[in-house]
């Protein structure tokens, strides 16, 4: 290894490209997956990692025909590389924020139970009010969105709260009620005073594991007195499929008010019912990293969204 006291043998300065390549390999322990993540060819990725090893004078990876492992030195360098890349990301964010607001790229993460119903409003607002803003939309489940926000892959999230994440700041937009959706001959169809307790013994259809809407619905059922572990049929990855299962007579489900028109308008095999006050509800908010360089911009964006969403069947949170 190079001696730190001998200028002639001192290690060379690694490049950011080399650090990004190595950090991706350290995360995936797979060259093909790492290359795909950072948009680099596999030979270029391998060359960048080899160049980093040569620059630092240490072996970072143990390569076999079947797997890739981090060497002890590689584990230590990987942690440092992530820190450096995060710092560079912060630097780029600061520089971007120094430019005129609402310009450049805004990477917005949205949960699946919000995206189809609120994105038309969001996209119209951006088109009409912020024409210089390049909006990139990523639809993912809550856990993936939070990881993306904290790792710097995403700038802003649109999702249900509270999140319980200490490093994330929530900007509330609105509250919306849940509505019971049932087959046309269901005894609760058309009612506007359904007690929550009615959910205790129903055949309830929910989304798959990982969707926050599933967890919210289960919380509502527990509050209604439904026994922990009571049977729940779960066989839908999205609300559209869930509604079709209800129309087929397999059970009932809960939909947020913003999804109701889109998901039920074209199906005459469905009926709806509304809960007595206070109806079960969820809160939708924007979420950003606490102390984000674009915090003022995001707060202004939240205020504009609240105004734009006043025509929806929701209660705006001022």
Q: SS-based structural class? A: alpha/beta
Radius of gyration computed on alpha carbons: 25 Å
Overall helicity: 40-55%
Q: Assess the beta-strand content as a share of residues.
A: 15-25%
Give the rounded overall mean pLDDT: 85
Q: Care to count the β-strands?
A: 12
Largest sheet: 8 strands, mixed
What are the segments in which pLDDT stays under 50 over at least 5 consecutive residues?
1-9
Oligomer: single chain
Distance N terminus to C terminus?
61 Å
Order of helices and strands: HHHEEHEHEHEEEHEHEHEEHE
Keywords: Activator, DNA-binding, Transcription, Transcription regulation
Protein name: Probable hydrogen peroxide-inducible genes activator
Domain HTH lysR-type: 14-71
Family: Belongs to the LysR transcriptional regulatory family.
Q: What would your notes on this structure say?
A:
Belongs to the LysR transcriptional regulatory family. Keywords: Activator, DNA-binding, Transcription, Transcription regulation. It comes from Streptomyces chrestomyceticus. It holds the Pfam family HTH_1. This is Probable hydrogen peroxide-inducible genes activator. The longest helix is centred in the first third of the chain and has 27 residues, at 72-98. Helix 1 crosses helix 4 (72-98). Mean pLDDT is 85; it is low at 1-9. The chain starts with 15 loop residues before the first helix and ends with a strand. It is elongated. A hairpin with a 4-residue loop joins strand 1 (61-63) and strand 2 (68-70). The protein is of the alpha/beta class. The strands form three sheets. Strands 3, 4, 5, 6, 9, 10, 11 and 12 form an eight-stranded mixed beta sheet that branches. Strands 1-2 form a two-stranded antiparallel sheet. The chain has ten helices and twelve strands.
